[in-house]
Amino acid sequence: MLRSRLWEPSGIGRSPDVLVIVGVTTLLVYGLLRVLWPGVGSPAGTATALLGLIAVLAWGKGIRGTAPLWLLLLSVAVQVLSWGLGYLHHPEWVSSNPEVDRLAKLFIFIGVAWWLGGSSRNTLLIWGLAVIGYLVASFVAGGLEEWRKGLEGMRTGFGIRNKQHGSMLFGVALLGLAIFARRIMTSGTRWVPWRCVAWGLALGICVVGIAIGQTRAVWLALAVSLPVAVLIVLLWARSRGLGQRVLRPVLGGIGVGLVLVVLGGVFFGGTLSERLETESGVVAELLQGDLEAVPYSSIGIRIHTWVAAGEWIAERPLVGWGGEGRGLVIDHTDWLPDDIKERFGHLHNFFLEVWVAYGLLGLGVIAALAFWIGRGTWLAWRAGVIPNDMALFGAAFFVYWMIVNQFESYNSFWTGVYVHNLIVGGLVTHIWRWQLESGQRVLAWPTRRST
């Protein structure tokens, strides 16, 4: 087995030592370099997924029969079905093959979860490497020039796909830094000065990155997910009679947050207010219900393309239009302006894209996966398998991810796939460990009582 002080051996299944070494190495490279060095990180991610899936199928006794594997198979079936029916109904608009990777890539977490081996230490290491890799990449990919422009008031994307995707990654990093703050800055019960400085520096970079990235969906997602995390902590503390003990660090965290908000207002107030006020006219038109009068601004484009998507969904709500569905909406909706058709090829909403492409069957696969992960995380946390802060991060991330994917199709692009699979993989590896240790299942039919 692969052993070191940093990487714990697997607690969910054993595969050959050589395979473990290769699998763990590819996972480490994927976590650290997917954003920083895509030419290396991307193939490493593919190797992580393929080797992990092979290992689960070959040596994952008690795991290969769980919901993620069945849902992966079902996602492939749904995509093939949608493609096949589309080929019969509109052959000129379907691709030459089913393109099953559109949903299947969201199941890369199966390989990630296997190599993490049910270990919290391994999971936190991978998540930490991902944050470090992205923070470095934000200075390397876009260069210091991007930061300079951003500090001068220009919207910047740090060289990561586009401006929204860079902001999204900073938002995830900030969420993790906030929730794991105590774990990062302390060793046992002792505060470690250099860790505190590193945490403060990383947090500051994320706050500035989010401000100059000027992505309103990320601001909204953080404005909701962070208070939700605080509320969960307070409810948990109250249920265990730990109110006074927990109140001080919570108030300290709120204080830090307020200070950051004030500083953001001082240094970026003009930029932030301008960004927020830009779409006030669009919001007014929406409140009046006059969709035709909505201009084709940032939010307006989303509204109009969502309305167009609704028209296509109404025609094939169950199975959708196939993998090219989002492009069909943009290209073949007559009333959308030509410049919009030239500039955009997606709907800025992941869930609408899945619905258009694969119908309610596709949405059902995504919803079933989310439910299984949510319930599994809850059960593993109650059993003490998932640490408190990790379970809290999982809940807060779910809120954050649901919101940002309403306004941009992150899960349709490599940035979102990367985030999704690393975080979901970290949660699922604990769920599998809980299942193996307890002999229970996340979803099980209730047993009949003997009479």
From TrEMBL:
Keyword Ligase among UniProt keywords: yes
Transmembrane segments: 18-37, 43-60, 67-88, 100-117, 124-144, 164-180, 192-212, 218-237, 249-268, 355-373, 385-403, 415-432
GO cellular component: membrane
Superkingdom field: Bacteria
Residues of the O-antigen ligase-related domain: 202-365
Sorted UniProt keywords: Ligase, Membrane, Transmembrane, Transmembrane helix
Predominant location: membrane
Gene Ontology molecular function, alphabetical: ligase activity
Cellular localisation: Membrane
Membrane topology: Multi-pass membrane protein
PANTHER family referenced in this protein's UniProt entry, alphabetically: LIPOPOLYSACCHARIDE BIOSYNTHESIS PROTEIN PA4999-RELATED, TEICHURONIC ACID BIOSYNTHESIS PROTEIN TUAE
Protein known as: O-antigen ligase family protein
Source organism: Chromohalobacter moromii
